[in-house]
Amino acid sequence: MARLIPEATIDELRSNVNILDVISQYVQLHKSGKNWFGICPFHSEKTPSFSVNEQKQIFHCFSCHRGGNVFKFIMELEGLSFPESVQRVAELANYDLGISIDNSENQNETSENGKIRKLYKETTKLYHHILVNTVLGEPALEYLHKRGINDDLIEEFEIGFAPENNILEAFFKEQKLYDYQILRKSGLFIERQSTELVERFNGRVMFPIRDTSGQTIAYSGRLLEKRDDAPKYLNSPETAIFNKRKVLFNFDKAKGIIRREKEAILFEGFMDVIAAYRSGIKNGIASMGTSLTDEQIYALDRVTSHLVICYDGDNAGQNATKRALEIIEPTGKFSLEVIKIPEKLDPDEFTKKYGSEKFVELARNDRKSPLEFYLSYYEQDKNLNNENNQLEYIRDILQEIAKVRDPLEQDLYLNRLAQRFNVAKENLDSQLKQIREKIFAQRAEKQEEQSYQAQQIPRTVIQKNEVQHFSKAEKAERLLLYRMLHDKNVWLRINGIPDFNFIHENYQVIYNLSEAYFDIHDEYEVADFLDFINEDGLRQVVVTLEMGDYADEVSEQEINDCLSLIMSQTPLEDKIKKVQTEMLEAKRQNDTAKITKLTMDLISLLKEQQNAKSLTI
């Protein structure tokens, strides 16, 4: 399809975005030598074979052979068209393309994911219209108003209502969006055994879940009336465009405010986020009902280094807070604070009971350090007048103090423990040292293991790469093509040889493409050249060339050797045709001796051809 984004804009984005920053949001990478290595996101594997070259801005997997530049990575991983991938890369890198693009119609025509996104866009409009403009939506509208969600918030979050009766199939047919296979994959329907499609959300208030660009990709629907046969909240299943591990509720609206305020507030659910938004706290996000994932942590790390956890005040919420701290603290990416809602309330309940101003005051001024949180948390269900409970509590707190790197903070909390329980600080200090020694030993063991794995990665990649054997002639072709692409003098020299051709067609095609590329580019950039190539197979050849271990310096002798070897090799088919032509001429001349010799040559060539074919099967 024709590109919807100007070529200059694509080039500028590619030049300003580091592929490592984008891929690191999906893959844990370890540096070894010039490259970064990790587990391939495109297929299941235990041994890392996925490589990123930051200097050349390309990736390559030696197992599944996928490779390319940053746009190709996103296209492959998220199933997007090229224009969609350009926009997605810009979002991931927080880069302003500087242009306004509405390509929803083209998305609908080009990719499966684009068609699903179109369904969600139109469904959100429909549900929102039903809520705010129809009799069907009046009960849901009344419910929301009672919950303190006014019309402005309804509009801001595009909240809607899915009525009891099925309406979507007819609506999509009317909008000319009906495609049975797309509908069944969208997550909007449940497919019965009879291939009948039944709407997933009926009789529910619909809260859109959006990606970082603000496009709806899923829903959370709440029943208006409690039913024994259905859950109160129903979330969309995972689809081609929705992975709950990667999505943070309200991140699209909050990310700019998070950057400005230099902190994000992590809530337990989306109703809490909306309640905080209503109070004026607009840097709130939620993790879709799951524990915070690596992908979500990467997303937050790109916009802030400070997280505030504000989960429900009941025991379940405090347990969730502890789990969140245990996930986030070891990353070392954030400074952390905790807000505990009093009276075991959640943020929405607290706001209703005490008002928005009190909630803002609580959120801004009543924060605790993680250690302060643990002092309170470990008191749950303990009678601290009981000596056994006291000992258990002290051991729990010492485990947390041991993780703190600041000796002053450690000393402060040791003093507090000693004073509270009337024990000698020296005894606490002795216990703490033993715990820290165990923690350090575990860390050292883990670091040693990671270091060993990092050292093994290049060997693994080399072993996998060795499976691909090349003849001497093909090795010469690959080396010469690599030199031609990277050295304009070599390219000009080969280009000046009238009868030069590569033996294998794929190298010849890349050579021909490079002629067109150099007509409009003065310098060779592999990430740019990959977008110049339309065929995936040829892209993979270029990527594997770039991942090859070639010396930095080029010599005239090296080029001469490559040329000599390539030009002395004539493809078998040409040799066979030549012998057959000579045999016809020998027969016309009735040259028996020559016929016999040529026959033996032909048999030898045909055997060689047969062997070559059998090796490729």
Structural commentary:
- With 617 residues, this protein is of the alpha+beta class.
- The chain folds into five domains: 7-101, DNA Primase, Chain A, CATH 3.90.580.10; 110-235, Alpha-Beta Complex (DNA primase DNAg catalytic core, N-terminal domain); 251-377, Dna Topoisomerase Vi A Subunit, Chain: A, domain 2, CATH 3.40.1360.10; 472-567, DNAb Helicase, Chain A, CATH 1.10.860; 572-616.
- The chain is 56% helix and 10% strand.
- The protein contains 28 helices and 15 strands.
- The strands form four sheets. The protein has a five-stranded antiparallel beta sheet with strand order 1-2-3-4-5, sandwiched between helices. A four-stranded antiparallel beta sheet has the order 6-9-10-11, with helices on one face. Strands 13-12-14-15 form a four-stranded parallel beta sheet, with helices on both faces.
- A hairpin with a 4-residue loop joins strand 3 and strand 4 (58-61).
- The longest helix has 42 residues, at 425-466.
- Its cofactor is Zn(2+).
- Monomer. Interacts with DnaB.
- A zinc finger (CHC2-type) spans 40-64.
Give the gist of this structure.
With 617 residues, the chain is of the alpha+beta class.
Looking at the structure, the CATH topology of the largest domain is Dna Topoisomerase Vi A Subunit, Chain: A, domain 2
CATH-defined architecture of the largest domain:
3-Layer(aba) Sandwich
Termini gap:
35 Å
Overall 3D shape = globular
How much of the residues is beta strand, in percent? 5-15%
Helix share, percent: 55-70%
Structural class: alpha+beta
DSSP strand tally: 15
Q: Return Rg in Å.
A: 32 Å
Mean pLDDT: 86
- How many domains? 5
InterPro entries: DNA_helicase_N/primase_C, DNA_primase_core_N_sf, DNA_primase_DnaB-bd, DNA_primase_DnaG, DNA_primase_Znf_CHC2, DnaG_bac, DNAG_N, DnaG_primase
GO molecular function, one term: DNA binding
Family: Belongs to the DnaG primase family.
Coiled coil: 414-445
